[in-house]
Amino acid sequence: MIKKFDIKLIILECVALIFIISGIKRLYFAYNGTIFNALTEEDWKMYEALTDMYASQFLDNQSYWILAAMLIGILVIGLINWKNNFGIINSIAVLILTVGIAMTGFYTTGIVNKYLNYFCGIFAEKYGTAFLIGGLMIFFVGILILWKTISLYKTR
Q1: Which carries the bigger pLDDT value, residue 95 or residue 156?
Q2: Is residue 3 one of the residues assigned to a domain?
Q3: What is the CA radius of gyration of the chain?
Q4: Is 1 inside a domain boundary?
Q5: How far apart are CA 72 and CA 78, in angstroms?
Q6: What's the pTM?
Q7: Is residue 151 left, alpha or beta, with left meaning phi > 0 and alpha meaning psi from -120 to 50?
Q8: Per mean pLDDT, which range of 17-26, 67-76, 97-106 is the poorest?
Q9: Which of 38, 57, 89, 155 is the most core-located residue (most Cβ within 10 A)?
Q10: Nearest alpha carbon to residue 131 among 17, 12, 25
Q11: How many CB atoms lie within 10 A of CB 45?
Q12: Total domain count, the chain
């Protein structure tokens, strides 16, 4: 039996995706920590020594990572919902909400992003280490939320 539209399931899956995407974004910055440090400190000689791409291209690559993480996350949630017969309407609603949230710039700006950046900064002074620790923690919180959501709804 295919279950109907469930707003609680949709919201929990969207929250999980927000954490997963924010974690992946921070892992991108951790991977490119020295480049990001050079950008934020406006050390252009160091930046040019580290990479041959423009600063705007570096930030565009971040958007591509966010887009890829969002599409993969939506695909995984769609497959999980399909496997557990949660209904296609729930997956479509998650898709629409996640794309709508991404269009607002939620993953790159905003008050939630500032708090998550502050949280990541607690662990280290340099961006690479702070974003690695914070990104992994935020990513796994998203995975945990998604896992708990699916396990709660499987028992219904």
Answers
A1: 95
A2: no
A3: 18
A4: no
A5: 10
A6: 0.80
A7: alpha
A8: 97-106
A9: 38
A10: 25
A11: 8
A12: 1
pLDDT digits (tens, 9 = 90+) for 85-111: 877 888 888 888 888 887 787 766 666
In angstroms, the Cα distances linking 100 to 14, 103, 107, 117, 142 are: 11, 5, 11, 22, 19
In a domain, 7, yes or no: no
Task: Write the single-letter amino acid at 4.
Answer: K
Yes or no: say if 88 and 81 are a contact pair by the CB < 8 Å rule: yes
> Looking at this protein, which amino acid is placed at residue 97?
L
> What's the domain range around 32?
14-154
The two tokens of residue 131 are 């974003």
In a domain, 20, yes or no: yes
Whole-number Å distance between alpha carbons of 150 and 137? 20
Q: What is the DSSP string of 38-100?
A: HHHTT-HHHHHHH-SS-HHHHHHHHHHHHHHHHHHHHHHHHHHHHHTT--HHHHHHHHHHHHH
